[in-house]
Design goal:
The chain is an alpha/beta fold and 272 residues long. It has 12 helices and 11 strands.
Length: 272
């Protein structure tokens, strides 16, 4: 079955940041919906997905916004005060449709001209490397975070079979690192990984964020519980990895490769 694509023209793209992201002034979501369709995606339990007839991952709304309109919005926001922007909180700005629609790239082009105080880019997609030319023009005020929940492809395939393969994400991280851009590897949500994982990441990044289902789903683990993610762990005999204290063991493992001050836990890893 194909993907249902809708084109929308929202009045604004910058929305006040709340809850988990209240350290930011705005969130910026170029799309609604996400065709990476991760099983554990907490957005599945949010009204935007719950009130939709189609399943999460089967639809995407493309927020068309002329560059001129977004420029005006950015100027207005800058006049009002601080512009710290999180892109994106409920979609992946580099999901497959971005290859053709280039909404994220258009927004970045505007932000190169009208620079925000800080921009955090959160993605799982290697497509992010396409925009290195733009990132370099605002490298002193951005951080690019690539989610790598595990280094084990069989595990990735169990939990997020449509999301980009791990080797491609590692390659993207390496490319961004070689461009000397501020980057972060985000191990979120923590999934079973090999002993070598922290060392592999350390070859590319100096900063890592560790988050889990209990701290990071925006509802203290309730959304993940409602999604029945525990059953996937049980089915694959991995229940020891599904516990609110597991992240502490994960931090211990990462401390073998990273300095303590380079390891950020949950929310702290996403702040401006
Ligand atoms: S990539 Fe992010 S937004 Fe997209 S389905 Fe996965 S967790 Fe959800």
């Amino acid at each position: 079955m194909g993907i249902e694509i809708k084109y929308t023209n929202p009045k604004k793209l910058l929305n006040p940041a709340t809850g988990f992201l209240q350290g930011y002034s705005y969130t910026l979501n170029p799309y609604v919906g996400c065709t990476f369709a991760c099983s554990y995606c907490y957005v599945r339990r949010m009204p935007v997905a719950l009130f939709r007839k189609s399943d999460w991952g089967k639809w995407v709304d493309v927020k068309q916004k002329l560059a001129l309109d977004f420029r005006k919005e950015m100027l207005r926001a800058k006049r009002k005060g601080n512009t710290t922007i999180f892109m994106s909180s409920s979609t992946d700005p580099y999901q497959p449709i971005e290859y053709s629609e280039k909404i994220t790239r258009t927004l970045l082009q505007v932000m190169v001209e009208e620079k925000p105080d800080f921009l955090f880019i959160q993605t799982r997609s290697p497509l992010v490397t396409r925009d290195i030319d733009l990132f370099l023009q605002m490298k002193d005020r951005i951080r690019i975070s690539i989610t790598i929940e595990t280094d084990l492809e069989p595990i990735r395939k169990v939990f997020s079979p449509i999301a980009p393969p791990i080797p491609a994400r590692l390659k993207a991280l390496e490319k961004l690192a070689k461009s000397n851009l501020p980057i972060q590897a985000t191990v979120s949500p923590v999934l079973p990984f090999s002993k070598e994982f922290p060392y592999r990441l350390k070859q590319m990044v100096n900063r890592v964020c560790i988050d889990d289902f209990f701290m990071g789903d925006g509802a203290g683990g309730k959304r993940t519980k409602q999604l029945g993610i525990k059953r996937i762990f049980e089915k694959h005999n991995l229940t020891q990895w599904y516990d609110s204290s597991t992240y502490l063991k994960v931090v211990d493992e990462f401390t073998k490769a990273f300095a303590k001050e380079s390891i950020f836990i949950s929310k702290d890893g996403f702040m401006p």
